Amino acid sequence: MMCERPERTRRAGACQSRQRRALGSALASKPVRQRRWNHRTRALDRRRANSRPPVPEIAGLRVNPFRREVYRDGRYVALTRKQFAVLEVLVAAGGGVVSAEGLLERAWDENADPFTNAVRITVSALRKRLGEPWVIATVAGVGYRILTNPDAGGEGANRG
Prior knowledge:
Layout: H1 14-28, H2 34-51, E1 57-58, E2 61-64, E3 69-72, E4 75-77, H3 81-92, H4 100-107, H5 118-130, E5 136-139, E6 143-146
């Protein structure tokens, strides 16, 4: 591929850079030596491994957002999409209190009814799926939180 009128380009390398861009897709299909191919694929694997989000673990719960899996004390727990979204928000809070409105904002879409019992029902079903001792506590009049030490129980371990 020849560059038309190279003497009229503003800068010396402009023609060559246009040629490289035009050949970019052709270079991708060009045969590559096996050794170089192996290096490229390993580099891509390293990049993918580094781009995965961290797996938070709190109160015996391991929540893997990349694989959308939850483990409680090493045991896999099957959750619905909504239950997983609620648990993900609570775990991200790191033991802090998240209001029902906050859960509704982050785990439901914008069309969710703010006067619905959906949050309360979903948290109740989530507690049952995760099993005892209860890991999700209700903070009266405020919201929900993950207990960082569920065996201790205490006043914050209300189920209601």
